[in-house]
Each structure stands twice: as structure tokens, then as C-alpha cells.
Design goal:
Elements (H helix, E strand, L loop, with lengths): L2 E8 L4 E7 L16 E8 L5 E6 L22 E5 L5 E4 L10 E3 L8 E4 L4 E5 L3 E6 L5 E7 L5 E7 L4 E6 L2 E6 L5 E5 L3 E9 L3 E8 L16 E6 L8 E4 L6 E5 L2 E6 L4 E4 L8 E3 L5 E5 L2 E8 L7 E8 L6 E4 L4 E6 L8 E5 L2 E9 L5 E12 L2 E2 L6 E3 L2 E12 L5 E12 L11 E3 L17 E4 L5
Antiparallel strand pairs: 1-2, 1-3, 3-4, 5-6, 5-37, 6-7, 8-9, 9-10, 10-11, 12-13, 13-14, 14-15, 16-17, 17-18, 18-19, 20-21, 21-22, 22-23, 24-25, 25-26, 26-27, 28-29, 28-36, 30-31, 31-34, 32-33, 34-35
Length: 462
């Protein structure tokens, strides 16, 4: 790290960023107004202006005049965490992709469905029915796992600055105090996604999506009806409030008193509650949402009969301004003929559909991390003279972990997590047996193939 950028965000939304060289591990962030609440974050950059460390206070502070005070901001690497159903996978974005430590694993014990940052110091690692804590500094377990005994974990989100994690399970919501281990439950019908809104002053609200409608694949119909309800987390007895019960939704995200939904059928992302401003985005096949600071991010997808389907990344400020869209490169996967010992006979299978199943925005919003699913169907090919089958029908499903640049849409790194090819054996094709090409180097997942379930980023948005 050679440069420090300190952000001071005021209550009115105005932000001042002071960038200074780091000399003898000291720097100046300038002056701040006393008596006014401010939110602080710090970014550490290297000579190439690459983010190598980030920290943020989860709650605003109020500087006092003529009184010396200090605040501690835990600064960590911008690590990406991928839950796989087994041992969580990590990506150290500060390292070169060929570095042996670029990819790693997180030993949290047991199966893992979600990795959710609690704050800058700890992660919540969730299995089917329990929550364990892991330090962000050393990636080591701390404390005792909490058994919720309340259904199977589906989704989870932390409450900003509160050391609480709200877990959506097959039975409803489990609110876990990670320090005491106390669990408060709220029975609900079949939640699929959860997002946390509100504030410490006004109280926090859990927005719960049920009846999730995923973005369609391979020509499947896009249909269904979703429900979003608001559940107060202050311990009161008020009943959940229905926000919407009409549109099909694939994902939700919340910030303050606003909740947003992604409609994959209409290709719209918009604010669901009655508040203002009525922020909206266009994203064909909208599939995943995330909020980083004051900006809403959404993924969509475009299809092509010649190049392969591609992911679209759209974003807009929460006041409705500065909407932007970038397209990622089209997706193709290589299949090789098993009987070719020299590996020279191969086929490119273009993506018929490509969907981002989960999205996380890294701190600073220069990079996004996604879990994507490619589906492709290739009809059999026949000899035009004899009519004999030469290449069989093929169907492929590929799961990728993708890091992409938010400004250009260029791929920073792709890791092929898994590749499944069905060449419909036995068949009568001359070239009958095919396989996904063997991946090596930075595109190969450390520890072998896995099925990524969810993605998160320390200090990032999801």
C-alpha cells in the first residue's frame, strides 16, 4: 500500500474523499465538522491504484470539538467468499491469479451454504442448521457454533453495526445474536431471499421474498407470482406488512427505507415500496441484485445465435441518477473428443442462456463477483452425403465464478467451478464420446470441481 483514500460521508449524502500518500504508516485525512454525524471508510491502494485493503465503520460517528478521540476501523483485504455446500472457497483479489494463494479454502467445519460478513472482524458461516463465526484477520473459527433448531438455512443477511445475523430458513426467520448465541424466531411461509433495510435510529426491517421466480434457461417460460413482506426486527408484536404480491421476482435488495426487486420476465428492476424516488433499471432477464453504498447493481443477460449469451451489468445511484450498463464478453465452452489422443478435435459450444445466479460488489465498486450458469444445447450433426450421424447431440451445464470490471465489463478472472456434458451415450455417432476440456492454471478451481451456491465480499454489497 502506498496511498490512502479516506471517505467522509455526511448525513445529507454528500461525500468528501481525501487521497494522500502513506508515509511512515501515517497520513492525514483533513478536517471534519464537529457535531455532525459522519460515516468513515478507508481504502488502501498500491502503486497501480489497485485496492489492497479496505475498512469501514458500520455506524456513523459524531466528532466533538476540543476533545481528542479516536476510532478504530478494521482494515482487511478485499476477499471474495464462495459457499459451495462443502468447504467455502476464497479468492484474494490483491494477488495475481497464478499465485498459489489466490484461491484458497476456509475451514469452518461441516457443510456451508452461505458466508456472510458480520462486520470487519468476523464472518458468519452458515450450514444447514447452524451458524459459526470465523475471524477475517486469520480465517480461524472463534467461539461456539450456534444451532438454530429452526428449519434449514435458505438465505441470510447481517444487520449493519448490530452483531446480528438474520437467517431465512424453511420455517421463517431466525435472528441470531452472534456474541450471546441467543436466537429469536419468527415463523413465516417459505422465504427464498432476505434483505435488511432501516437504520439504528429508525429500527431495522427484514424484507423477505417468497415464491422466487428465477431467470429462465433454455427457452423455459418465465412465469409465477412472488410476495415480498416487511418484518420489523425491533422485537415488537406488529404483523408483517405486504410490500407486493403480484410481480414475479428473482431477487431483492434493500437500503434505508427502500426495497428493490428484480423482475426477470419483464426485464425490470424497480423500487417496490411506496417511497420516493422511484428508481428503476432495465436489465433483460434480471436475476441478481446488490447495493454497495449509494448504488444499486443488477445482472441481466442477452442471447445471441452466433456468439453465445452474455451477462449484462446495470447500475444506478439510489437517487435515480447516473444509470449505466456494460456488457460482459459472450460465453463459449470447449468440448473435446475422447478418442483423440492428441486433443486436436474440439467443438466450441456457445451459451444458449447465461444467468448470474448470485452477485456481490466489492468495496469501492470497481469489481463485481458473480456465480454464473451457462446452459447449451447442440443438435446432432450428420454427413450430408450418407446421412450418417457424425457428432451426437450434446447438452452442457457450466458453473463459473467470475470477477469483472464494472466500468468496462471486461473479465478480470474466470474460474470454471464445474462442467457437465451429456453426449447422450450410447449413440450412433462416428465421434461418439465427448468431454469438457480440461482446465488448468488460474481457471481451474483449487481443490477440484465444486458447485458454487452463493458469493459474498468482505465490506462489499450483496
Amino acid at each position: 500500500m502506498t496511498t490512502v483514500a479516506v471517505s467522509v460521508l455526511k448525513a445529507d449524502g454528500s461525500e468528501n474523499i481525501t487521497t494522500t500518500p502513506l508515509e511512515d504508516n501515517h497520513f492525514s485525512a483533513g478536517e471534519v465538522d464537529k457535531g455532525e454525524p459522519i460515516s468513515l471508510s478507508v481504502a488502501l491502494l498500491n502503486n497501480g491504484n489497485q485496492l489492497v485493503g479496505f475498512g469501514r465503520l458500520e455506524q456513523p460517528i459524531i466528532p466533538q470539538g476540543n476533545t481528542e478521540s479516536s476510532v478504530e476501523i478494521p482494515v482487511r483485504k478485499p476477499i471474495v467468499y464462495i459457499a459451495t455446500g462443502g468447504m467455502p472457497h476464497t479468492i484474494d483479489t490483491t494477488l495475481d491469479a497464478l499465485d498459489p494463494k489466490y484461491q484458497g479454502t476456509l475451514d469452518a467445519g461441516g457443510t456451508t451454504n452461505l458466508v456472510v460478513p458480520i462486520d470487519g472482524t468476523e464472518l458468519a458461516v452458515l450450514g444447514d442448521t447452524s451458524l459459526a463465526r470465523v475471524t477475517t484477520a486469520e480465517h480461524k473459527p472463534v467461539g461456539q457454533p450456534v444451532s438454530m433448531n429452526f428449519g434449514t438455512v435458505v438465505d441470510a443477511a447481517s444487520v449493519p453495526g448490530q452483531r446480528q445475523v438474520v437467517v431465512a430458513t424453511t420455517m421463517g426467520l431466525a435472528i441470531v445474536d452472534v456474541d450471546s448465541g441467543n436466537v429469536t424466531t419468527k415463523p413465516l411461509a417459505a422465504p427464498n431471499r432476505i434483505a435488511i433495510g432501516g437504520s439504528a435510529d429508525a429500527g431495522f426491517t427484514a424484507y423477505v421474498l417468497s415464491g422466487r421466480v428465477p431467470a429462465p434457461i433454455l427457452g423455459q417460460p418465465c412465469q409465477g407470482t412472488s410476495t415480498v413482506i416487511a418484518v420489523a426486527l425491533d422485537g415488537g408484536t406488529e404483523l408483517p406488512t405486504t410490500i407486493t404480491s403480484n410481480a414475479p421476482l428473482s431477487d431483492i435488495a434493500a437500503a434505508g427505507d427502500a426495497v428493490y426487486g428484480a423482475n426477470p420476465c419483464s426485464g425490470e428492476v424497480k423500487r417496490l415500496d411506496a417511497g420516493e424516488p422511484k428508481v428503476s433499471l432495465t436489465a433483460t432477464g434480471a436475476s441478481a441484485l446488490a447495493i454497495e453504498r449509494n448504488r444499486l447493481w443488477a445482472t441481466g443477460s442477452l442471447t445471441s445465435s452466433t456468439e453465445g449469451a452474455r451477462i449484462v451489468l446495470a447500475s444506478v445511484d439510489l437517487d435515480g441518477s447516473n444509470a449505466q450498463t456494460v456488457k460482459l464478453p459472450p460465453k463459449t465452452e470447449v468440448m473435446t473428443f475422447d478418442g483423440d489422443t492428441k486433443g486436436e478435435l474440439s467443438i466450441n459450444m456457445h451459451a444458449d442462456t447465461l444467468v448470474a445466479e448470485d452477485l456481490a460488489v466489492l468495496p469501492g465498486a470497481q469489481t463485481v463477483a458473480m456465480i454464473t450458469r451457462m446452459d447449451s444445447h447442440r443438435a446432432a450433426r450428420f454427413d450430408s452425403g450418407t446421412g450418417a450421424e457424425v457428432i451426437p447431440t450434446m447438452d452442457a451445464v457450466i458453473d463459473d465464478i467470475v470477477l469483472a470490471d464494472t466500468a468496462t465489463g471486461s473479465i478480470i478472472q474466470r474460474i470454471r467451478a464445474s462442467c457437465t456434458l451429456d453426449d447422450h451415450q450410447p449413440n450412433n455417432a462416428e465421434f461418439d464420446a465427448w468431454s469438457c476440456i480440461v482446465i488448468t492454471g488460474a481457471e481451474a478451481p483449487a481443490g477440484g470441481e465444486m458447485i458454487p451456491v452463493s458469493v459474498g465480499a468482505l465490506y462489499g454489497g450483496r
